[in-house]
Design a protein that fits this description.
The chain is of the alpha/beta class and 236 residues long. Helix content is 39%, strand content 20%. The radius of gyration is 19 Å and the shape is globular.
Amino acid sequence: MASVQAVREQLQRVIAGQEEVIDQILVAVLVGGHVLLEGVPGLGKTLMVRALARALRVEFRRIQFTPDLMPADVIGTSVFDPREVTFRIRRGPIFTNLLLADEINRTPPRTQAALLEAMEEGQVTIDGESLPLPEPFLVFATQNPIEHEGTYPLPEAQQDRFLLKVLVPYPDEAAERQILQRHLEGFRARDLAAAGVEPVAGPEDLMAWREAVRQVTVAPALVDYVHTIVRATRQW
C-alpha cells in the first residue's frame, strides 16, 4: 500500500515550502473532510489541489465560480430527450472524486448552497431523485481574503461543511528563491507530469488509510478534554 509520505513528496515537487498547509490538507484527506483554502492569488492553491488529485490518482474536476453560475451548472439537471420522449439526468461536474470550487465566494448564495447536500450527505437531488456521489468524494474550495468587491461571503451553514479552513501564507524567503529557480529551470504549472508529479496511490489506498485512522485508539481523558473545550466555546 502506498504511504501518505509518498503523496507528500509528490506535492513538494511543485509546492515550495508550505509544509504546514500540506500537513493540514493531508489530515483532511485521511479523515474525509472538505477544505477551504484562503489566500491571496498566486500562492499555488489550485496547483496544490491539482497535484494532490494526480498523486492520489482520483478523478478531478474544477469549477470556476462566477456571479452567473447556476446550481444546475454544479450538480446537473434533467433534459428532455426527443428521441426517447422522456427526461434524462445530465450529471454536473460535482460527480467526481475531488472537486475544486475555485473562488467559491464569487458566486451567489443559491449556487453556494448547491454544495451543501453533497458535502454533508455524499449525494445530490435532481428533480426529486437522489443520486449518490462517487467514493471517495472531497471538496476543496478557494477564496481570496483581500478582494471583497463582487463577492458573497460564505454563510455559517456553508462554512460548517468544511472540516478545515486553511490559511495559505506567503512562502518564506528560502521557498521564494526555490520558486524562482524552478521557473528559471523551465517549470510550468500546467504540466504536472513534466514537473515530476506521479500517481503514487489510488482510491483504494485512500479508503484503506481512512479505515486505519478509524482504528486509532483515543483515550477517554482526551475525549473529555476535547469535549470540555467545545462546550466552553458555546458559553464564551
